[in-house]
What we know:
Elements: H1 2-27, H2 31-50, H3 53-57, E1 67-69, E2 76-78, H4 80-92, E3 99-110, E4 113-125, E5 131-145, E6 148-157, E7 160-161, E8 166-167
Parallel strand pairs: 1-6
Antiparallel strand pairs: 1-2, 3-4, 4-5, 5-6, 7-8
Amino acid sequence: MLLLLFTGMQLFSNAQTKMSKMGTQNMINNPEDEAAIRELEDRFAAALNAGDVDAMMKNYVQDESLVFFDVVPREEYRGANAYRKDWVGFFSHFQGKPKFSITDLGITVDGDLGFSHSFQHVKGTDTHGHSVDRTVRVTDGYRKINGKWLIMLEHVSMPVDLATGKVAPITK
Length: 172
């Protein structure tokens, strides 16, 4: 019985060591891929600040495989054409162009797939003259297609105070 227990413990230990090494190797980002995704996010932010929906959409897959979850109705978009319409609608709610920034961008890449998480802030004046100053949490899923990173999944969220049902402030 002790021999069986010892053998089982040894096998378990060896498996844990292998899994640990595999996990560590997979979590090491290729610096070039990480830099390419950061450049994608920088291009997106610049395009949003310019109010250029066409340039913004160049950062997304251009077919029906794009999935986007938003915090405002319509909460789910499938496909690049539906998402493009959402961005056009977004800009129609502002006087002029809103100011946009991305902070705390964390990126993980494994092969041809990657994801990021960040805080994204938009500030401007709506068409009724009211100030808009909103920060959201964003998670993006990327796929490297023909050597180019593109967003294939985007999820935007805001924390909610479950006791009140109201948006809670984002604290970092």
